[in-house]
Design brief:
- Helix 1 crosses helix 11.
- The strands form two sheets. This protein has a six-stranded parallel beta sheet, sandwiched between helices. The chain has a four-stranded parallel beta sheet with strand order 6-5-7-8.
- With 273 residues, the protein is α/β, with parallel strands linked by helices.
- It folds into two domains: 151 residues, Rossmann fold; 112 residues, 3-Layer(aba) Sandwich (Rossmann fold).
- Helix content is 44%, strand content 16%.
Length: 273
């Protein structure tokens, strides 16, 4: 099958968090078009079973294939942990998740071999970051912790709030006690709290933003497969956004964090896929 190199890249997440990945793709691969899907009707994924996450992911992938995307980015840690291996072999286009790119950088950057991971309950319980880090370097000690309050704080827009700083201080104390020198922001919402996390952890701890690393991984992959967009014939709306619910709320949030004005977000019935 011949893949059109000027086709868009599909990006999906359980909700708005994956917009941090879309933002990094916009910044680092400016000639690429994006079709984004946020599963806002069924968020959060972090508390759902593996079987459910796989079923949701398959539905979304079928929708994105209908949009004729040339590659797919699973911009959700929980879906990357639970569904990526299950769906990878079913596709004839490249698909990547957000876990491996971040873990690779963390393994390269840590000096004292003590790496922290924060994420949703589902991601942390899956142990996938730890497994991958140990595979890259068996010497690494992994300290992982779920930080479930971070997502609602981000979605409330409390990015630089005293409440958020207080919550972060409590969550992250364990990592300071354990002397981690590298911390993976293992949920796509968390890069939006980067400055708060930096305040708590101090300047010496390397914060790994998997959204940025995933954009670079996508760039490498598209180059390798000879699928980089030529950037010609750019349409008026290179970025299209779809959700399963609450389109206006999604659009407001997207406009608060993206370097691009989102004109329209379309609600679709994902259950029919």
């Amino acid at each position: 099958m011949k893949i059109d190199r000027n086709a868009p890249v599909g990006v999906f997440d359980s909700g708005v968090g994956g917009l941090t990945v879309a933002r990094e793709i916009m910044r680092n691969l400016p000639s690429e078009k994006i079709v984004y899907f946020g599963d806002t009707a069924r968020v959060p994924y972090g508390s759902k079973s593996k079987e459910t996450i796989i079923r949701y992911s398959r539905q979304i992938i079928r929708f994105l294939q209908e949009q004729q995307v040339k590659a797919i980015v699973v911009a959700c840690n929980t879906a990357s942990a639970f569904a990526l291996d299950a769906v990878r072999d079913e596709l004839d286009i490249p698909i990547i998740g957000v876990i491996e790119p971040g873990a690779r950088v963390a393994a390269e950057e840590t000096k004292n071999k003590r790496v922290g991971i924060i994420g949703t309950i589902g991601t942390v319980d899956s142990g996938i970051h730890a497994d991958y880090l140990k595979m890259l370097d068996p010497q690494i000690t992994v300290i992982a912790k779920a930080c479930p309050l971070f997502v609602p704080l981000v979605e409330e827009g409390w990015l630089h709030d005293s409440v958020t700083l207080e919550v972060a201080g409590r969550y992250l104390k364990e990592f300071k006690d354990e002397e981690v020198d590298t911390l993976i922001l293992g949920c796509t919402h968390y890069p939006l709290l980067r400055s708060t996390i930096r305040t708590v952890m101090g300047e010496d701890v390397r914060l790994v933003n998997p959204a940025y690393e995933t954009a670079l991984e996508l760039l490498r992959l598209l180059k390798e497969k000879d699928l980089l967009s030529t950037g010609t014939g750019q349409e008026e709306f290179p970025y299209r956004f779809y959700v399963s619910d609450l389109a206006d709320k999604f659009k407001d949030f997207a406009n608060s964090i993206l370097p691009y004005d989102v004109e329209m977000t379309q609600k679709i019935n994902i259950e029919k896929y």
